[in-house]
Design a protein that fits this description.
Elements (H helix, E strand, L loop, with lengths): L8 H13 L3 H4 L5 E6 L4 H7 L8 E4 L18 E6 H6 L4 H19 L4 H8 L4
Parallel strand pairs: 1-3
Antiparallel strand pairs: 2-3
Helix pairs in contact: 1-5, 5-6
Length: 131
């Protein structure tokens, strides 16, 4: 995307919220203790720990997947899981707002797949149903 075509942060967050709110109840009701944040790029720590460049990552799930949470989960104050959406990187692979909106949906659903404990192959197979 050209610089003048970038979405405002507010609009980008609104699209992400619409995607999240539009999830089927079957999934949405199971999501607990997750914050979705929008940043331009991954942090230095994320880049170092994941061995990625500043521009290669579109989103990231950080936390304890639902499938790994035992009865102990939540018995003490628990830091929320985090899904990061990297706005500048998403916009860089899109040509217009429609593509940005579609990519936000794709990336958010992908990262939610990790929240639900799915591996990359399982996520790719599940994503075929959303296209």
């Amino acid at each position: 995307m050209n610089l003048h075509d970038t979405m405002t942060r507010e609009k980008f967050e609104d699209v992400a919220e619409e995607v999240f709110e539009g999830l089927p109840r079957l999934f949405g009701d199971k999501i607990d203790n997750v914050h979705i944040i929008v940043e331009d790029y991954p942090s230095e720590d994320v880049m170092h720990n994941m061995h990625v460049s500043k521009t290669s990552l579109l989103g990231l799930y950080q936390g304890i997947p639902l499938t790994h949470r035992g009865t102990w989960y939540g018995t003490n104050p628990t830091t929320p899981d985090k899904i990061s959406l990297y706005q500048a990187n998403i916009e860089a692979v899109c040509r217009n707002d429609k593509e940005v909106s579609d990519r936000i949906k794709e990336v958010l659903l992908h990262e939610l797949g990790h929240y639900f404990g799915m591996n990359e192959l399982e996520i790719r197979n599940a994503m075929k149903n959303f296209k």
